[in-house]
Amino acid sequence: MTTTTGQRAPIPRLNQDYTRGAGARRLEFLGDATGTRPAHIGRYSIDPAAVVGNVENFIGVAQVPVGIAGPLLVNGEHARGEFYVPLATTEGTLVASYNRGMKLLHHAGGVTTTVMDDRMQRAPAFGFDSAREARAFGQWVTASFDAIKREADATTHTGRLHDIEQFSASRFIFLRFNYTTGDAAGQNMTGKATSRACDWIRDRYPGVRQFCLESNLATDKKNSQINILATRGKRVTAEATIRAGLIREILHTTPEEMFCARQMSNLGGLLSGVNSNGNHSANGIAALFVATGQDIANVAESSAALVHSELLDDGSYYYSITIPALIVATYGGGTGLPTQRECLELLGCYGTGKVLKFAEIVTATVLCGELSLGSAVVAGEWVDAHERLGRNRP
To answer: Which domain of life does this protein belong to (predicted)?
Structure first.
């Protein structure tokens, strides 16, 4: 808002800023500034004091519909049994599609899930007067790893520095600090730990001419090939084998038709240069992230997916999906907000010691959606389903 005198009108800040009164005051300010009178944003059940550390200039809550899909049968190392999965979305057909995939794979004996890796990064860069000086610095970092690790680990109860990768270019050394972060997603945790470690390095190593705590090699909230190859967050594979009769009965197609479509999809993805050869992993991931209080922007990395399928000798269809950069948390951030916590509790995934279980459930959910959408396209049901379920008309 700009006043008639040309002066900027700041958003109201109050001494008691996280209260219903403060939110109402800002909504009133918005009404005067924009000429609108929001009727729903300011109607909510949560205590505004609960969102301290989650949002600034609080005015209310965006209400997103939550549907439930399941039961999802998971044969994991951390998630075992049946789960009813909350999905927050405004896209009609999405919950129905994932529900159908879960029905299929429940009849097939469930989804097998495996956590392959777990690491979170911060990637500082150091600049020197020459490439040789940069090389010498890299050798010193390797020799000093134990001391660097002690500094980094001292900043956190749950995070642990695993290793430091090195990448050189010109007269710069890029260091990729790899951590395990417990039940937190860990971006802030790794930032704090790496900052302290780098302070220790710069105090002891002469000749550093340039320094940046994050060089973009960690690629926060951006998809990247390095994270597809090297992992960011959790690397999880979900796989299942489906009998031909089940595919005909539930998906109304055949393993041969689905495999042929998968081959064409791989080729089309290669032509387009996409970061994933899957169908729509971002759909299920985003819906689960919204429901359970994850950092939504992490969908940019987490939705990268690697799909592989095979026609087996007995006519069955093997299908797997690997998510190489799944960034999730069951503690901290938005996971403790009331509705988000309830959704995590529905899955038995709220709190400490639950993040790998949650990662397996997310990946198993994605697999169900991949099979359901893929078969709908092959069987000619995709457009019809959206016409029936996904058109929100007055």
So the answer is: Bacteria
Could you tell me how far CA 71 lies from the centroid of its own chain?
Answer: 22
Kindly state whether residue 80 falls inside one of the protein's structural domains: yes
The total number of structural domains in the chain stands at 3
List the end-to-end C-alpha distance of the chain, in Å, as a whole number.
33
Task: Tell me how far apart the alpha carbons of residues 77 and 236 are, in angstroms, rounded to a whole number.
Answer: 11
Assign residue 338 the CATH number of its domain. Answer: 3.90.770.10
Q: Verify that 205 and 354 share a domain, yes or no.
A: no
Same-domain status, 375 and 255? yes
pLDDT value, residue 101 = 95
Catalytic residues: 91, 295, 386
What pairs with residue 142 in β-bridges?
Answer: none
Whether residues 288 and 182 share a domain: the answer is no
Secondary structure (3-state) at 363: helix
Predicted TM-score (pTM) above 0.70: yes
Domain's final residue, options 26, 47, 63: 63
Range of the domain at 19: 1-63
Count Cα atoms within 13 angstroms, Cβ side, for 290. 16
- Rounded Cα gap, residues 185 and 96, in angstroms: 29
Angle, helices 281-292/355-378, rounded to nearest 10 degrees: 140
Which residues is 87 bridged to in the sheet?
Answer: 67
Dist. CA 41–CA 311, nearest whole Å: 51
Model pLDDT for residues 256-307, shown as the tens digit of each residue = 999 999 999 999 999 998 888 989 999 999 999 999 999 999 999 999 999 9
Rounded distance between C-alpha atoms, residue 189 and residue 332, angstroms: 11
Residue 369 lies in a domain: yes
Q: Answer yes or no: are the C-beta atoms of 214 and 124 closer than 8 Å.
A: yes
| Phi then psi dihedrals of residue 176, to 5 deg | -110, 100
